[in-house]
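Reader question, answered in our methods column.
A reader sent in the components of a multi-part assembly and asked whether the whole thing could be modeled at once rather than chain by chain. We filled in our standard form and ran it. Here is what they sent:
COMPLEX SIZE: two components
ENTRIES:
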Amino acid sequence: MMWKWLHPYANPKTSYHFAGKILPWCTRLAVIFLTIGVTWALLFAPADYQQGDTFRIFYLHVPAAMLSMGIYLGMAIAALSSLVWQLKLADASAAAMAPIGAAFTFIALVTGAAWGKPMWGTWWIWDARLTSELILLFLYLGVIALHNAFEDKSLAGKAAGILALVGVINLPIIKYSVEWWNTLHQGATVSKLGQPSMSADMFWPFLVCFIGFACFVTALICLRFRTEVLNRNSMRPWVRELVANEGKTHAV
Amino acid sequence: MTQLSYRAAFALIVKRDLMIAFRHRDDIVNPLLFFIIVVTLFPLGVGPESTTLSRIAPGIIWVAALLATLLSLDRLFKSDYADGSLEQMLLSPHPVFILVLAKIVAHWLLTGLPLILIAPLLAVLLHLHESSYGALMLTLLLGTPVLSLLGAIGVALTVGIKKGGVLLSLLVLPLYIPVLIFATSAIDTAAMNLPYSGQLAIIAAIFFASLTLAPFAVSAALKVSTN
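And here is the structure of the entire assembly that came back:
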């Protein structure tokens, strides 16, 4: 049943247009949610009783950190489905996700450092969660480097996919590092389902921010995915037709 | 033509790799020399105070072991890939898992084992704490096979690429970090005369997980690389 519903999207042309259709919606949602969320979080949400206004970087740091892991998981699932079911487009989507994930990992590390300086008095500390997040960045960079090293893109996708799957082991380590090792990084505040250990007037702006960032990431992935599909199919008639049409509209 | 049993095929490949290595002894000796030279650089760079040295000795020995293993990884598949025998192995009726595992075991015997044998000597040079020697040997014994197993994944992925050397280190070193963290932590704990069985258990868990899973990843990667 599921295959029947999914199989049209194995065709690059169909998924190219599908990604094109959801792209503007994600962009709009991202703009709306981020505008509301960021204004709410930075101006109207109450300051933390201990950390004061410094804590507001939380609204950027935590979504970025959560998405850095979420994107890796998405990339690994895409890599697995490309290796197991030989879905060529899964390769393209994994390749589209890697640089975005790396960027968000970097954002999480930088905002974390900016938050750590006033709170812990140091930019960086070799704490379990920071170290494992840094390893995640290295894994992303490794996947990207391996992807670039191959001339043949379908081979590149497979090789990078294997590496991405090997690196999945790091995700639970990052997730539970604050519980396994009691170090400086504070414990989970939002991910406890049902009863987050933060007050509601801080939680709701966070949720809005998070949804905004998630939509933003989806839009970026759609954009890069479309580029990847065009790159890989540049010799196909439908792409040439597309380019020819594009040329006409621009000429007029 | 008679069919080889799995065990015979395994033994045959280990024997073949060992024989090739013994005919080119440089391949065994060079990573070992590198290991020794890197370790001797540290007292010269950091200064010869024995307290400082004994404090950083576990880290130095382990980092040097990582780098020496990394240098020796090239040998694992490169020449077999170049002369085509790797493809013949993949075409053979035996499961690739067994052939890959045999090659990794041979690699460990040629690099991991000599490192372990020479490590106590270097530990003396670095004034390693007396109660840490057991921990050093145990972590190396459990940890160096992990280095060979995880490294094999990286080599298998990059064997078809012309300039794979730097890329290989980029792929493999992040995967080595957990082993490094727990090994050095075990040795440090041992220096304080505290039980280090926890760290050892985690390294053992990493060892068994990579022993059972890494050969699958290596076979998949080799199929991609030989295409």
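What stands out: Chain B has a mean pLDDT of 90. The two ends of chain B are 27 Å apart (CA to CA).
Send us your own complexes using the same form.
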